[in-house]
UniProtKB/TrEMBL annotation:
Residues 27-42 have a biased composition (Low complexity). The lineage of its organism: Bacteria, Bacillati, Actinomycetota, Actinomycetes, Kitasatosporales. It comes from Streptomyces avermitilis. Residues 27-54 are annotated as: Disordered. Residues 1-31 form the signal peptide. This is Secreted protein. Keywords: Signal.
Length: 267
């Protein structure tokens, strides 16, 4: 999968065709049903047509690698919007999915351009060193800003309005269903650390494959089920296999992703 996110006239044309197709007699794609905007049981949102806009929160206290941090918002050409809640109740990511109309996709893209995206270099005040930041990728270009909590909305009204619009569009959402999850991890110490969750699949030192962000293991089927069950009671990013403790980020694969390279790829 390409790491470049491109938005061109073809994207807007595709969004227009998506809106007009709804008036025809053809059946909706799985990513567009049911009408409530949630994905039906067992279905995985397609995210077909490519990524339009992605928003990431980083800086400050981040997981194993910023690249393994789940994007806050991922909007695709077909209207699929995958969101990651700002807080989670356990070690298991609780992603949500909504389905926007073609008009809503066009409105979001227009709002992003009105906010000054994409922008060469930081947009607004430079983020503080090691402070929390929010990044936006649009037209294949990355724009970094201070985190919303530190933003002066009297001076960046359009950018704050974009964030509020994305939040509101994500509200009537359903559970994001996935069949593959990546575990990205690095050893943080020998032995078992207090409070670390117990890894249920054996030794981690040789599991998966090495990447620039640490080792990465793709979980499917029974392995995915066992890790999900263990993660429900995890209270931190610390996991132990009994011989060492690891800092780990659990990252469901998003539409269009199919490998560890997709997960740890940097913008």
């Amino acid at each position: 999968m390409s790491n470049s996110l491109r938005l061109s006239g073809a994207v807007l044309a595709a969004a227009f065709l998506l809106g007009t197709a709804a008036c025809g007699t053809s059946s909706p794609s799985p990513a567009a049903s049911p009408a409530t905007g949630t994905s039906a049981p067992g279905e995985k949102p397609s995210g077909s047509g490519g990524l339009v806009l992605q928003v990431r929160d980083g800086g400050g206290l981040v997981p194993v690698s910023p690249a393994a941090n789940i994007p806050r918002f991922s909007l695709y050409e077909d209207g699929t919007l995958v969101t990651s809640p700002a807080t989670k109740r356990s070690g298991l990511p609780g992603l949500r999915v909504a389905h926007l109309s073609a008009a809503e996709v066009r409105t979001v893209v227009g709002a992003a351009h009105d906010a000054g995206l994409p922008h060469s270099g930081p947009l607004g005040p430079a983020p503080p060193a090691d402070g929390p930041v929010r990044s936006y990728t649009l037209d294949g270009k990355l724009t970094t800003t201070v985190a919303p909590a530190l933003r002066d909305c009297t001076r960046q009204r359009e950018l704050c309005a974009l964030d509020k619009r994305l939040d509101s569009l994500a509200e009537p959402s359903g559970t994001y269903r996935y069949s593959v999850m990546a575990a990205v991890f690095n050893e943080s110490g020998k032995g078992r650390s207090p409070g670390a969750a117990t890894w249920p699949l054996g030794r981690l030192s040789t599991a998966g494959e090495p990447t620039s962000a640490g080792r990465c293991l793709l979980l499917r089927g029974t392995d995915l089920k066992r890790v999900r069950e263990a993660a429900r009671t995890a209270t931190s990013s610390a996991w132990t296999d009994g011989t060492a403790t690891y800092r780990m980020a659990l990252r469901p694969l998003l539409p269009g992703e199919d490998s560890c390279a997709d997960v740890v790829a940097t913008d």
